[in-house]
Each structure stands twice: as structure tokens, then as C-alpha cells.
Design goal:
alpha/beta, six-stranded parallel beta sheet
Length: 180
């Protein structure tokens, strides 16, 4: 089925582990009336990292569980299915076969390295960036800003797992996995 009329927000990432900050971003995106659907795309392996801590299939399963009651959300397996590092531009081109317009959601912590992304010049012609606030990092006014009031990061949670920072839908399972 073709959805060429739909405008989507692509929210990709490692989600290793998924946390309440990720959920807050999706909740904020859901309030934007110019977005028809949110596509959440977990990586098989982040192009800037050498390892994932939880397997991609498990992270995908957690995201399905966390967002199962949300409307207009799709958890997309594209990058997981590739079983390799997938540059964002490749995922965007895959989605443009189906969707008309893509807003690409990134965290403010990605701004400093955005020009290092694969084919960044082409990517910025294909998408409109939405930048989610994070860690009091100054926001760039040339992008749409999404103010998120959650101070949490996956890397910090891996070091010191805190169940209160995990989505309730699978918090216990996530906590147990990272405590191993």
C-alpha cells in the first residue's frame, strides 16, 4: 500500500535501552498537527558505534511493547533487517518510496557531529530536521526545536540502571537485562 500523501516523523536510534526520554519525544511529536505518522526505527548498529549492548531484535520488541497503545506509530524493522550499520540517508530514501515528506528527529547532542553523517548535504535536502532538547545543549534556530523536559540518557542508564527512568510497559524486563 502506498502512503504518498503522508507526512512522517522518522525517529531513529539505538534505543539501548529505550527510556522515558524517548517516550516523551514521541508524545511531543504526536501533538504536532503537521505529522500524520511517527516511524520509530531502531538501528541494527549505530553507524558511529562499534557495539550494541542489547540485541536489535530485543530493542525492537521493547519498542513495540512501549508504543503499542499509541496511534499513528509504526516501529519499522528496516535497519534491524539489514543486519549492518545503516546510514540515515539510506533509511530516508527507503521511506521516501512510501511517504511524501519526512521530518527527521534527532537529539540536540547530535548537532555537533551532524556534518559527519553519511551524505549529509544530500540528507538535509531530503528531510526537515526536528531537534529534541537535551542536557541544556544550545538549540540551533535553523531547525524545528522540540522542547523535552526529561534528563536521561541510554549510556547513563547502562552504567546505572534506574527503573524510574524506564517506560513502565517493560521496565522490569529492561532493568533485568541491563543488570546482567
Amino acid at each position: 500500500m502506498r502512503n504518498k500523501y503522508l507526512t512522517i516523523a522518522l525517529y531513529g536510534g539505538s534505543f539501548d535501552p529505550p527510556h522515558i526520554g524517548h517516550k516523551a519525544i514521541v508524545e511531543a511529536l504526536n501533538k504536532l498537527d503537521y505529522i500524520d505518522k511517527i516511524v520509530i526505527m531502531p538501528t541494527f548498529l549505530n553507524p558511529f558505534k562499534c557495539v550494541s549492548h542489547a540485541p536489535s531484535e530485543l530493542r525492537f520488541k521493547w519498542l513495540k511493547e512501549i508504543f503499542k497503545d499509541f496511534k499513528n506509530i509504526k516501529i519499522d524493522r528496516y535497519e534491524v533487517n539489514q543486519k549492518r550499520k545503516v546510514p540515515t540517508i539510506e533509511s530516508v530514501k527507503y521511506l521516501l518510496k512510501t511517504y511524501k515528506k519526512i521530518y527527521l528527529v534527532i537529539g540536540a547532542d547530535n548537532l555537533k557531529d551532524l556534518n559527519k553523517w553519511n551524505n549529509f548535504e544530500e540528507l538535509k535536502e531530503l528531510v526537515t530536521f526536528i531537534v529534541a532538547s537535551r542536557d541544556n545543549i544550545p538549540m540551533d534556530t535553523k531547525f524545528i526545536n522540540l522542547n523535552i523536559d526529561e534528563s536521561v540518557s541510554s549510556s547513563e542508564l547502562r552504567k546505572n540502571i534506574n527503573i524510574s527512568k524506564l517506560p513502565k510497559e517493560c521496565a522490569t524486563e529492561i532493568e533485568q537485562y541491563y543488570k546482567k
